[in-house]
Amino acid sequence: MAAQPNEIPALEVLVEKAKTLFRETYGYEASAGGAAPGRVNLIGEHTDYNMGLVFPMALPLVTVVVGAAAKDGDDCKVTSAAATGEMMSAQFSLDSTQPGEPAWANYFKGVVHHFHAAKSLPPFNAVIVGSVPLGGGVSSSASVEVATYTFLEELTADKAASEKDKALACQAAEHSHAGMPCGIMDQFISVMGKQGAALLIDCKTLEARRVPFTDPSVSVLITNSNVKHKLTGSEYPERRSACLESAVVLGKESLRDVSLAMLEENKDKFDEVTFRRVKHVVTEIPRTAEAADALEKGDYVTFGQLMITSHASLRLDKML
Q1: Are residues 104 and 135 in contact, defined by beta-carbon separation less than 8 angstroms?
Q2: Which residues contact 246 (CB under 8 A, 6 or more apart)?
């Protein structure tokens, strides 16, 4: 018999699960909470840290964080049952939010560290639950970070000055506490994503444009390869460094400012692998803009062809 697909739990179900877990763990009711989605990037790979364009959309898979000010003690305690269902706990002081063990808690602690009103935070207890697969390549880390930030906003009744500031703080948390030099895409879409739309993000200007995607005859299929995705332990940092160094070689701030003609004229400055990786980025940025325009017009044939071209470029230009 074929395996039955797992239903995605509704947000309300996850919120109740989180509130129940908090009550059972800490013995009183949660008073604040936040939720944030995972994402899939439709097109625009390895372009965010090159100040290019990306085109992600939020998923119905979410992370929920609920909690309340601690009843006693000066430490913060967090319990996680996110995605795996395995119970994990961590404890830390607001005076000591540097990264450490357990590693999973660094995403949470990093957001506490970079929270805009960190000095007004009381010691608190919190729980994390969610449906975003860990290591599935759908940005479980950004989902945790943004949900945590939203929880802290509710806990302090003090919101970030803007959605952009919130996303940047969560990105800073991943840089400083998880050791992952990610671009801004994952945090931006987790903060700004809306149902029924993809988001074209300009990673240079940090401007975003929502593109409606509500045609009921079209679905986005996301396949789980069961290959664990871990950016901090992958070749991602190597590819990022190669791109940033190549921009310097070409005398540009980023590869966003490099044309294909310019790259071809300077081909002799790069080894073959670096040239191909830079070529992917230089061609992917305009391809992403074209794809967003095609989707907005409902031209799914062109959009699909651009996705296929993007995937081929990732494979042939050594970006996978």
Answers
A1: no
A2: 255, 270, 274, 277, 278
Residues assigned a catalytic role: 186
Tokens standing for 47?
């372009």
Ranges of the chain with pLDDT below 70: 1-6, 82-85, 228-234, 318, 320
Rounded-to-integer distance, Cα 62 and Cα 229, Å: 18
- Helix-, strand-, coil-residue percentages of the chain, each rounded to 5: 45, 20, 35
Task: Tell me the H-state helices in the chain.
Answer: 11-26, 105-114, 140-156, 163-177, 185-192, 236-249, 260-265, 272-297, 300-316
Number of residues that make up the chain: 320
Q: Summarize pLDDT for 260-317 with one digit per residue, the tens.
A: 999 999 999 999 999 999 999 999 999 999 999 999 999 999 999 999 999 999 988 7
DSSP string, 239-263: HHHHHHHHHHHTT-SSGGG--HHHH
The whole-model pTM stands at 0.91
Q: Which of 205, 257, 219 is nearest to 40 (CA)?
A: 219
DSSP letter at 136? S
> What rounded mean pLDDT belongs to the chain?
92
